[in-house]
Amino acid sequence: CIYLYVLLRxxxxxxxxxxxxxxxxxxxxxxxxxxxxxxxxxxAHNAEYETFVYVLCPAGAGGWSPLNSNKYQWLEIKxxxxxxxxxxxxxxxxxSSDWLTRYLLMFSDTGHNWRPYRQEDSIGAFSGNxxxxxxxxxxxxxxxxxxxxxxxxxxxxxxxxIGLRLEAYGCxxxxxxxxxxxxxxxxxxxxxxxxxxxxxxxxxxFKTLLNSGMLVHMEEHSGHSFTLELFRGKLLLQLRKxxxxxxxxHPLVSLGSLLDDxxxxxIRVERIRGLVNFTVDKNxxxxxxxxxxxxxxxxxxxxxxxxxxxxxxxxxxxxxxxCLENVLxxxxxxxxxxxxxxxxxxxxxxVSFTCTESIDVPVTFASPGSxxxxxxxxxxxxxxxxLQFRTWNRAGLLMTFDLQHNAGTLWLYLSEARARxxxxxxxxxxxxxxxxxxxxxxxWHSLELAVRRGRLAVTLDRTDSSTASTSFPVxxxxxxxxxxxxxxxxxxxxxxxxxxxxxxxxLIRTDGxxxxxxxxxxxxxxxxxxxQMDMCGIVDRCSxxxxxxxxxxSQSWSTFHCNCSATGYSGATCHSSIYExxxxxxxxxxxxxxxxxxxxDGSGPIKPQLIYCNMSDKAWMVIQHNNTELTKLKxxxxxxxxxxxxxxxxxxxxxxxxxxxxxxxxxxxxxxCKKSRLLNTPDGAPFSWWVGRSxxxxxxxxxxxxxxxxxxxxxxxxxxxxxxxxxCDADSKEWLNDSGLLSHKEHLPVRALAVGDIxxxxxxxxxxxxxxxxxxxxxxxxxxxxxxxxxYLHFPxxxxxxxxxxxxxxxxxxxxxxxxxxxxxxxxxxIELSSPTQVxxxxxxxxxxxxxxxxxxxxxxxxxxxxxxxxxxxxxxxLYVDHHPSAVQKAPADGHIHLQLNSQLFVxxxxxxxxxxxxxxxxxxxxxxxxxxxxxxxxxxGVTPGCPGHCSSYGDLCQNHGxxxxxxSGFTCDCSLSPFTGTFCHKxxxxxxxxxxxxxxxxxxxxxxxxxxxxxxxxxxxxxxxxGENVSLSFRTSQAPALLLYVSSYYREFLAILLxxxxxxxxxxxxxxxxxxxxxxxxxxxxxxxxxxxxxxQRLGETLSIQLFLIAESGEVDPEIARLNALGFTGCLSVxxxxxxxxxxAALLYPDTSPxxxxxxxxxxxxxxxxxxxxxxxETTHSLADHVGTVGTxxxxxxxxxxxxxxxxxxxxxxxxxxxxALAVMARFLYRRKETFxxxxxxxxxxxxxxxxxxxxxPNSQSIISDNQKxxxx
Length: 1274
Description:
repeat, mainly beta, 8% helix, signal, disordered C terminus, single chain, eight-stranded antiparallel beta sheet
């Protein structure tokens, strides 16, 4: 391979205004770098090639075009000096079909160790030309300082060949450098007369080949010190408090990675009082210093290291070995002063003011087809191979070679981040040794393979060595393969059974001789494929980490992974919260009262918080604090005031978000007093006050309005003493109180309380500050109705450059329409309903349009609410619609990652004139922030704020025959026709009965029979002309025989449900007074076993006027029923229902307004708790201590202290099985006997359910029923 150096005849073209536009912040006059080219070199595979080199002037012609167009060609330009390069422009060869379509742009200071320029930190390739004449220019987002430029063609016109005209733009660059050898340092003492106590700025550039060393050590007058240290390729900014051997370094922040790459890196540390901005290259972190450092003055600064004593406590324990450039402290050039030998600078050790660099030529194995083949010349009985490597992969082939005399094949490879050597022969493993650990950490590791007289040794990092003995010579036959090996056809040659190596190697030695990789690159020595020569292309994808919300980043050579466990977030980058934003949202998923994690801003910065949700007609969020109990105070001499502070379970940012988002908030504030005044004093200053959220003291009490300095009784004019505005201000010797609710949201919560009048003899007081309680979610119900396809709402530009999530609910009858759209110059993002069964998420971040689609089995234009969530990050784009399977589109591995938008965000319509949306959009959130649709809809034609009609979507949450009732913001469940109660009619109504306890429910009889009956009858009228009964109840008892339910009519007809003496369930019917009663055996098992059973009886036909009794005496009763009734009933009854009447519920919850008579003790109990009937809300029970960090979405946490979880689980399993089995047996039996009541109907076909199905007899099952028995849902 021949290098050709051509001195250019320069065509001077100075575009002053153009260059200023490209880089307006240059300090020096900018010209095209064409005039500064001193050398241009080319590389090709053979000596016969032609080349044309001309600059890109208006009349320029020709260009560079090698004879052979392949991926091993490159064009290199050497500038006169290091220059700041700001832009690059390319053009095809003049008058030809030769141009580049893609190329790599690389830079270097020395002509070696090249560094590729990456756009957006991810894109290595530049898009080139589409013809020979047009100019394609790129302004570099980050200017590059370099003396060498190299262009590597990747793709070119397939109908032509490589062709290029090139122009570079930039500015002159001034550089002051100093070199340290690892033992020297510079000591700088700032002039205290010009020191700025409140602000310090230190900036510099550095480069090094070693991964550890102290760069800067700063001390202030008090002895505290700052240290900037390079450790394992990262920069640590540390603080040390005090002097002496006892002082330790405390890391403040870590930035950067792979900084030992022998390239320049920029550092800037700016302190403004106690706030520090720490920048490494393009990444900045901000942190707060301790108070003692806020106004400190730097006494001295040591560059390049410090004394030996100062290194003992550092991580690296060594001084810096490398170069520093342009070191500025408060705009003072430290290197200039050192060169001038000024008194403020002390030089210690060997310091040079030039940057001398060792020439190490690395090589990158970047693709699955990469390998390096080196010829081997036998050197007798000993052999050695040494190299250094770095990688992120846990596995990969490092080297392999065939042994002489067909003795086998040696494989040295990475496995589980350890080095492993094996010798294979005819399918057998002859030798197997391992060495090293954690070799995939991205650091340089040295590897040595040594063979001498039948003994193998593998040594990692010069310390970790493993050896093995062999009975055969171990020496390469003819070739040594590194990183991989070529796949050969026909089955001969190298066939790699392991993963390929992806990483970098350098300092490769065979038998002690350094391999000249430049000669390999020139094809003068060895062979290679898909290697990046003279550069290490390793990239740390975890620095800075793209994992959000504390997700842990790990990586391989080509990608990274985020571990989101225990963060509360999910997705490829831990971006999306797994929790709901309010109790309101949990309620509308069917969840009941309990503890839930609430994430107020979704993917935003506010952390999730565990909060109790009280689900009633409203979904209350309850935030506790450290003292919600009544606190008593007594007179104490010397104490004029009692001050109480309240620490809440949520932090200030979370509480503010809760209050802002809530519809209403309140907090109880009460004061009980005995000779202790509250607010009004003789001089007007209140004795007591409370402090709100902003830290401001408030002089009004609970129930009064802000600023009134009154209590609730003063506002209502009903205080005990009218001349005062608070009851306690009367200074009475009797106990009085002033209590009420604080509800002014801007003042909540109560942070502190001051009580003043407690120092007099006889003064007593007590106060209580209740928990903060809020209900409603203004964001959850924020909706707009779009009634025209041309209508839309517009909002400011959506900023989601690296991570974007969009979620909303919609309902429509339209078949298609655009939900939202935001455009940029080329980029865009759009979500639309593309068909009744498809939602489409499309976007472009510069790699071309991408689409993510979700297809649904059922139509989405059904006027029901549907939930959509789209997310796009640097790794992938995903789309979720309701509970349907999600769709995911992976991002290109080497593509643009920044979403750059600049137009307004359109909601319900589009700027590109596509079909708008007809229907409702609700709770629209972009990166956790809710857009106020209703506010914009108020002033936008064709759009209406709000959107009613929620029962069509949420009505199924009302269980057990509860009915959904529409509300402006949501819905409620009407449980009046259900035997259940609760938010969703899900809570059973149970009572524990004892002998002598009964409940009687009396119906209004027909008018013709009513004239001669007692006044005991109910005033509630019902249609008693019944064609059948629908009776259901649950019971739990250990008593047999027992009467469970008895229904009788005024015509001496009755229905009885009972347990006979064997505990079997019998149903006794008498439908005609002149016929005998019939008994149906519903179960052949003993049900008096202390477990919960449910009975359901239905009948159709006949017309009855009935009276309902629950274990009650009434007139003429069947003898067997009377006998059982006399025994009474001991056990549990729950959810008793007769058609639409729930007598037990009426007796327990509405005894004063229902026609019920209760005899004996009766109280509500949880003895009938069993399975949840809501299919949407599965509940579980945990101890709070066991629940931290493992709470999933929708799981309520109930305080179950002193409960045995294992035992509970066993009991629940029994209860579930027996309940279902009893119900199945009962249904089958009644269906079989149905012809007794309706003989005209054909006999039903026998089912497969066997009445002999055995019941569970778990020994853990409880056999004793007690009123305080507790059941747990699962």
